[in-house]
Amino acid sequence: MKLSTLLRHGAIWLAVFVALFPIAWMASMAFKPPLEWTAAAGNITWLPKAPTLANFEYIFFGTSDAYPSSTVMEKTALRPIFASLLVSTIATMIATVVGSLAAYGYSRHGYGKSLPLALVQLRMFPPLAVIIPIMIMWAYLALIDTWWGLSLIYGIVTLPFAFWLMLTFLEEVPIELEEAALIEGASPSRIFYRITLPLVKPALATTALFVFILNWSDYILALMLTRSKWITIPVFMNDLNSAQTGQLYGAKAALGLIAIVPPLILGVLIQKHLVRGLTFGALKQ
Amino acid sequence: MASIELIDIKKTFGTVVAVDNLSLEIKDSEFVALLGPSGCGKSTTMNMIAGIESPTSGEIRFDGRDISNLPANKRGIGFVFQNYAIFTHLSVRENLAFALRVRATPQRDIDKRVADIAELMRLTNKLDWPSSRLSVNEMQKLAIGRSAIAKPAIFLLDEPLSNVDAAFRAFMRTELKHLQHTLNQTMVYVTHDQIEAMSLADRIAVIDKGVLQQFGTPEQVYNTPANKFVANFMGSPSMNLIEATVNGEGSLLSLHFGAAGAIPVAPTSILCSHLQACRTRNILFGVRPEDIALSAPDDPRPGLVMQASFVEPIGPRTTIHFGGSVPALKVITQKRFVTELGEAHKLLMPEDKCHLFDPASGKAIRAEVAHVDA
What are B279-296's pLDDT values in tens digits? Predict the structure, then answer.
């Protein structure tokens, strides 16, 4: 094997290791008893020596025999998981539906000439830059610590992303297909629902997945705009510590492992759409 | 059925004039070809007839009724796109049925008409295929079938054969002509291929830079081109156009071709009448390559003696190029013609097959008598 090939393979394996190691470490951590979490006991534990479900027990029931009694908590992960699922799903629907319709209107009818630029401006600063004004607005509107308040801000924040992604996909759909349908006598709404929408179904799925992941992993907005009832998984994860024991790494890892599941399921469900071309062969180019 | 009238149609995109004051009258069940080079405005004209584009000014009438403001989905026409625009997410059957479903046709009628049109287009055994799996030729047939199923009175085809292979193109030319006879529709056909236009159309509208150059039967357009552009565009290889000077007075005229020599013009010929209609001494002289006869250099008849510079044998005929850069002439001989490069021949030009053009305006110069003949 040549040196350059060797170097390339080395770089690839390094990248794979860097990407996968934290996940593997987290998965391992989730099944370790508290003593094995850190090297305080004397040595690093790579794989759990005494595998346990105590961490899962703790986050779902607020207490576990393996944990010190001072860590007992009133709230469990059930509510944050539900909050995350609900808020992310609604926000994804808002962003995908509004973003797609806006992108369609813009690309086909030229509605809102400054729309793309205006929307990209929304992404030019981090949400952190406007979080305080938003907090005040949300407080005025009584949207703090509500599922609809959080869904709304997530929908707004991810809308530009959905718009741009859908715009790219929609512009790939040949305008002739819609013109052909129009000439055959179809009304604009029929053209949209029978021709364009079926053609961009894979694009919609892709957009929805990306938007969902963005919403699912947000921390800062949820931290500022929720108090207790509607805190999401990332916020709840930060709460997993106690004055006496410090960070509850095992519990955090268990929660992290659970947080992987919904995007993973979504990804698997739409995987066949992700790799397919949109209108392959519709036109002879 | 329907006639189409375009009255002073103009279409501008920003500062670009795509179609400039175009007027056309297409009769009921006529097959008209819009012919011109790429970007001449023929597709834009088609799109305006279809309603995809609206004219900047002017009026479009179907059967005398102004439909300029009627949306495309209410015009009841058929349109075949250059790239077919097949709905690839639907089956062949659903593609064909699309226009009927839009019109809320009962399922029984849909089944029957889909079967009929599939039969006509020879797609019967592929009805339940996903349309994305069809070959290019089949997609073309599907596109035509999908537009034809609603029996539109007006059928528009935008370069439908430019993507298919040569053999299928020749086959489809016949099929299209047959289809038009069967359905008795008014057909408008956009093409940049003059052979397609000549072989299919009842009348040809030659368009250049958004301006209508000539509108007439294939014979008229070919034999009596209205101007230099039409003369040059029709025919392959194109018409020889060379600069010439008119010498002499009254009916004793001769044409001078610089270094290539001169030809005296018979006083009683049509060419002589044409020349008498000239207002200038400098003209553009045109003659089709297939109208020139070759003879021995010492032939006593008037003609130009020139040397062969390049020979292109293409099966049934041979194209021979004569002369250097200026003037250069192409000649088509029907049989395989054997000549050496540099060999001299006399080029005989029948006086009734010669064309004269004004070098400034490009317009054809013809005596009145010729107009009557045409």
Answer: 778 889 999 999 998 888
For residues B93 and B142, the answer to whether their CB atoms sit within 8 Å is no
Q: Does A185 touch chain B (CB under 8 A)?
A: yes
How many CB pairs below 8 Å do chains A and B form together? 79
pLDDT value of residue B327: 67
List, for residues A128-140, the tens digit of each pLDDT value: 788 899 999 999 9
| Percent of all residues in chain B with a pLDDT value above 70, rounded to a whole number | 96
Q: Using an 8 Å Cβ cutoff, are A90 and A146 in contact? A: no
List CB contacts (< 8 A) between B81 and chain A: 176, 179-180
- pLDDT, one tens digit per residue, over B176-191 is 888 888 878 899 999 9
Q: What is the pTM of this model?
A: 0.78
Question: A175, A183, A193: which to substitute to probe chain B, counting the most B Cβ within 10 Å?
Answer: A183
List Cβ neighbours of B67 (8 Å cut-off, separation of 6 or more). Answer: B51, B60, B61, B75
Pairing label, strands B203-208, B317-322? unpaired
Read off the pLDDT of residues A130-175 as tens digits, 9 standing for 90 and up. 889 999 999 999 999 999 999 999 999 999 999 998 998 898 888 8
Alpha carbons B203 and B181: distance in angstroms, whole number: 15
Comparing C-alpha atoms, which of B46, B62, B374, B16 is closest to residue B192? Answer: B46
Given pLDDT bands bounded at 50, 70 and 90, which one contains residue B237? confident
Interchain CB distance below 8 Å, A184 and B98? yes
Residues of B in contact with A280 (CB under 8 A): 88, 132
* Mutation choice for A interface testing from B46, B77, B83 by most A CBs within 10 A: B83
What is the spatial distance between Cα A40 and Cα A95, in angstroms, rounded to a whole number? 46
Mean pLDDT of A215-227: 92
What amino acid is encoded at A230 in this protein?
W
Categorize the per-residue pLDDT at A284 as very low, low, confident or very high, splitting at 50, 70 and 90. very low
Domain with CATH 3.40.50.300 in chain B: 4-225
**CATH number for the segment(s) B232-370:** 2.40.50.140
Cis before residue B218, ω within 30 degrees of 0?
A: no
Tokens of B333: 């001989």
Look up the CATH number of domain B4-225: 3.40.50.300
Domains of chain A: 3-71 (no CATH), 78-239 (1.10.3720.10)
Bridge partners of residue B285, in order along the sequence: B242, B356
The reply to whether residue A195 touches residue B87, judged by beta carbons under 8 angstroms, is yes
State the smallest CA–CA distance between residue A280 and chain B in angstroms.
8
Instruction: Provide, as residue numbers in chain B, all residues whose Cβ is less than 8 Å from the Cβ of A199.
Output: 88-89
Minimal CA separation from B205 to chain A, in Å: 24
For chain B, where are the alpha helices, taking DSSP H only?
42-50, 92-102, 107-121, 136-148, 166-183, 194-200, 218-223, 228-233, 270-276, 368-373
